[in-house]
Amino acid sequence: MMKKNLLMWDETLFRDPDVFEIDYVPEQFNHRDAQIRDLAFQVRPGLRGGRPLNTICRGLPGTGKTTSVKKILAEVEKATQKLVPIHINCQIDNTRFAIFSRIYQRITGHMSPASGTSFKRILDAIARNMQQEEQVLLVALDDANYLLYEDEINRVLYPLLRSHETYPDLRIGVIAIVSDMTISLQSKVDARVASVFRPTEIYFPPYSEEEIRGILEERILQGLYPNVLRSGMLDLVVEQTMKSGDLRVGIDLIKRATLNAEKEARRSVEREDICKAYEISRYLHLAFSLRALKTEEKQLLRQIAEISAQADQEMNAGEIYRLTKEQTNISYTKYYEMIRKFDAMRILNLNYRQGKGRTQLISLRYDPERVLDHL
After folding, report:
1. What pLDDT score does 184 carry?
2. Of 217, 352, 369, 374, which one's alpha carbon is 20 to 30 angstroms from that of 35?
3. Side-by-side strand order, sheet with 55-58
């Protein structure tokens, strides 16, 4: 006889698995009331046909920036058709062409233009449509720090913020979401952009342990059946989430631990399910970051990880260039741009050592084997 507490093959522990997806926007969204109020204030002029005020939402990963912005964009969507909101993930769309193609699609309702189309034609079509419909545009650039390489940030912001000079009555506001606390976006834009950008900064502090517990409890209530994850097990999840400093790790951890329990045909999550899941969830940031890299960047990172697996200390950046040059065939300037990008994405650390001149040292933030696995 099969024991009664084992799951039947078609049973599940999830009441609603969507609750544990990374892009899920919860109905009940706590601990960010002040930030959402500030965002609403910034957007309000757009609801009256004016230009929304420019904003930077700044805070570590997993502090509710994207969810807060998506909440506001959804409110705008419900309230009016005159203010058109669009959310752009700059990890995926990180060139001027890709971003304006998304805007073109949102404004015109047609497929984005072929990659040979001139930028001016795309901008003309967007402007014409907006003028005809008397619309205002609100562009949210999520993970805008990905636009800092090859000066893409100025190439994107300039036409967004100064297009009214060419197309009268065009009104566009920008929300930039930045997860890298070492970067000041204002100091990275050139004078022509800075004079019209002038953003208000809204800071998203890390969640406290109590807040993390509350948010995870809310998700468990919505997403799992009663008693699947008991309070003693939640303590462990909260502890691991605090260790990683990213709420998304906790949400992913609950999902994976529950899947582990299901696989073992158990009716509740045990300690071993959580420990096993943490081995994957703790690398969530790494997995996200690597997904956004271009082919040549992945190639270089693979080489660095292979060299790092052999070395047991920080590596000299110049030395690494010499070792990777044959395989990757990239210029010295391009190499340093990529290294700085990896540093900004928190995949590796770039440090300087004073000696005869300044030596740049590289160390991976993750176990090289893990980086190679994810690549």
Report:
1. 87
2. 217
3. 83-89, 136-142, 172-178, 55-58, 200-203
Give the pTM: 0.84
Query: What is the gyration radius of the CA atoms in the chain, in angstroms?
Result: 23
Listed in sequence order, the DSSP H helices in the chain are 33-47, 65-79, 96-108, 119-133, 152-162, 185-188, 191-197, 209-223, 231-244, 247-263, 271-281, 284-291, 295-310, 317-328, 332-344, 368-374
Give the CATH number of domain 294-374: 1.10.10.10
Q: Give the N- to C-terminal CA distance of the chain in Å, as an integer.
A: 46
Listed by start position, the domains of the chain span 33-203, 207-282, 294-374
pLDDT, one tens digit per residue, over 305-343 is 988 888 877 888 888 888 888 788 888 888 888 888 888
CA 145 to chain centroid: 9
Instruction: Classify domain 33-203 at the CATH class level.
Output: alpha beta
Residue 354 carries which side chain, given as an amino acid letter?
A: Q
Q: Residue 362's beta-bridge partner residues?
A: 315, 350
Q: How far apart are CA 285 and CA 305, in angstroms?
A: 17
> Would you state the structure tokens that stand for residue 331, as one six-digit string?
């210029």
Residues 145-197: pLDDT tens digits?
Answer: 889 877 899 999 999 999 999 999 899 999 999 988 778 888 889 999 999 99
Length of the chain, in residues: 375
